[in-house]
Amino acid sequence: MLSRRRRVAIVSQAAIADLYLDSIRSGLANSEVFLIGDGEEAKSLSTVETLCRGFAEFGLLRGDVVVALGGGVVGDTAGFAASVYYRGVDVLQVPTSLLAQVDAAIGGKTAVNIPEGKNLIGAFHQPIAVVSDTDTLASLSPREYRSGLGEIAKYALISDNESSGTGLIELLDNSKDLVLARDPAALADLVAMCSGIKAQVVAADPFERTGIRATLNLGHTLAHALETRGGYELTHGEAVSIGLIFAVELAEAAGRISSETAKRYCSVPGSLGLPIQVPGGSEVKAEDLLAIMRRDKKASGGLTFVLPGKDGLQLVEDPPTDALAHAFRVVGVAG
């Protein structure tokens, strides 16, 4: 796939490049490596400009390819740079984190952050392929690994709201110890199941125009607000975990799901060792988070959440104030 390209631009981070760069570059006649910083701070327009200028100096042309070697930050940033350079060059996603393998690398969403919010500048740019090697997950720190489990918890709840539910909640319940121990076979099954769920949803709504794809943002309305307000001290998966609890409690308080269903759903993140309340939440004002959530990409003038219900996941605008207050209390946020 890469050997036929005249030039290959590999975007990565220093620690990841040290581990996997040699295997990627072997057999490539003309490749160049572009390293970006760590953390959400690297997902910026200035990083994209630096990459694009580097691509130009390298001589990258429209028929060449960008390889995103790394986790979600690398995939998002390299993918967006590829989408705007020459109005679009091919990108190959090689995710090395659990979060990227089950979610971020799939579906063609690319974006960077600005101070006003996460992922507000972006484009749809489908990769020519996604190559996931679960052996790379052994090198993740415990916290980064758990961050990926946050997205897996999300897919467990999503699949339970589909008519053809995959039984992912039950699978996680039965194989929790194997998953937490990073068992290779269990991880291979989870990555395949979650990426398959996402690919199916994306295929039905590739550009997020019908509302189907928006359901993949379950838990993300609060999650992105927490990340933005907290300066990305929470990992994405940690924020998603708290966002899932918030969404489920909001749905129950709004009368969309039963207390039994809410209890079942809320047990999933905690069973995987994920946070279920906002750290230092007593110092966080709900109104500050609401102000950020009103700028969410799903919003159309008010507050918009993806919530479970008797008819599956749906976009819900401006839920009742008392239901919001209840959900904030459950995740430990002050009124």
From TrEMBL:
Residue intervals of the 3-dehydroquinate synthase C-terminal domain: 148-299
UniProt keyword list: Amino-acid biosynthesis, Aromatic amino acid biosynthesis, Cobalt, Cytoplasm, Lyase, Metal-binding, NAD, Nucleotide-binding, Zinc
Cellular component aspect of the GO annotation: cytoplasm
Primary localization class, coarse: cytoplasm
Requisite cofactors: Co(2+); NAD(+)
Enzyme class: lyase
Cell location: Cytoplasm
GO BP: amino acid biosynthetic process; aromatic amino acid family biosynthetic process
Residues annotated as domain 3-dehydroquinate synthase N-terminal: 35-146
Functional pathway: Metabolic intermediate biosynthesis; chorismate biosynthesis; chorismate from D-erythrose 4-phosphate and phosphoenolpyruvate: step 2/7
EC numbers: 4.2.3.4
Catalytic activity line of the entry: 7-phospho-2-dehydro-3-deoxy-D-arabino-heptonate = 3-dehydroquinate + phosphate
Cross-referenced InterPro entries: Dehydroquinate_synthase, DHQ_synth_AroB, DHQ_synth_fam, DHQS/DOIS_N, DHQS_C
GO molecular function: 3-dehydroquinate synthase activity; metal ion binding; nucleotide binding
Family, similarity comment: Belongs to the sugar phosphate cyclases superfamily. Dehydroquinate synthase family.
Annotated PANTHER family: 3-DEHYDROQUINATE SYNTHASE, 3-DEHYDROQUINATE SYNTHASE, CHLOROPLASTIC
Name the UniProt record assigns to this protein: 3-dehydroquinate synthase
Organism field: freshwater metagenome
